[in-house]
Amino acid sequence: MGIKKMLFVTDFDELWFDALESLMDLRKAGLDHIVFLHVINREKVAMRRGKGYLKEEETKLKQMADVRFIDWAESIFEKGMECGAYVVVGKYVAKVLTTVEAEKVDLIVTGAHKRTGLEKFYADSETLELLRRTQTPVLVHKYMLPTGKVNAHPFQRPLLATDWSPPCERALETIISAKDSMEKVIVVNAISEASMKGKSKTELQQIQKDSKKRLEDVVTTFRDEGLEAETHLAIGDVVSQIETAGREHDATMIVTGTTGKESWRTRWLGSVSQKLAETSELPTLLVP
To answer: Which residues contact 161 (CB under 8 A, 6 or more apart)?
Structure first.
């Protein structure tokens, strides 16, 4: 296990080469192969009344992408890494999944998007569909924020948000596999108020005690791997508590699983991940 081969999906809007450079800390953890992918929406070259299929437009868009990728590839080769590129026409999710299968990548990197008219990032329906259909970790990267802030080293101080589910355990393993690119890890368990409702004082105290014990166990796991770690236990709205912990601990990325207990997959993909993509300034790494 590890992140040796990365699929970098770009529309040349949010993610440019400088965004890719921000992920080069992963070379310390074994990254040695980058695959570029640019998907041209079929609607841009689809049949038009009186014009037919816009073949010339397709050729122009492909050539523009090829020129950019050739330039990027030269820089990758200079670093002693391998590189490949795809420029394809079709549906975004289908083409990403096809490339993932063909290249057997360990990580998919895609951009967040800015909602028209608002200075806010969001996860669009294509990103959410990709998260539902892939078994490969997906990093929704937010390299440069509307404020001008740059997330220059996402893997430096990741925040692991866990609900103790198997996918969150896999998220922990993903962090360990990339440990050589990190300074420390912040481990957060956010307990929703809804899950505490109706519990007695004794039950609530036991839940907090058990959570603290599990957090310390995770810290021990990280420290045994040579990674410094600290914990944060919170009760309240899950998204806001994760964001608050990220700010308080100066995290550089949020990492979590995408499926799990208590309909976590539905809640996460339908609510939590989308809200984090909309409100958090941090890149978000989601592990199936």
So the answer is: 168, 188, 189, 190, 242, 254, 255, 256
Determine if the pTM surpasses 0.85: yes
22-56: per-residue pLDDT in tens?
Answer: 999 999 999 999 999 999 887 766 655 556 556 77
pLDDT tens digit sequence for 148-196: 889 999 999 999 999 888 888 999 999 999 999 999 999 999 988 888 8
Task: Report in angstroms the alpha-carbon separations of 191 from 15, 161, 199, 232, 257.
Answer: 34, 11, 13, 11, 15
Under CATH, domain 147-288 is a member of which superfamily?
HUPs (3.40.50.620)
- Non-local (6+) Cβ contacts of 204 within 8 A are 196
Domain segments of the chain as ranges = 1-111, 147-288
Q: Which amino acid is at 104?
A: K
3-class secondary structure for 191-256? ECHHHHCCCCHHHHHHHHHHHHHHHHHHHHHHHHCCCEEEEEEEECCHHHHHHHHHHHCCCCEEEE
45 neighbors 55 (Cβ within 8 angstroms): yes
1-111 folds as Rossmann fold (3.40.50)
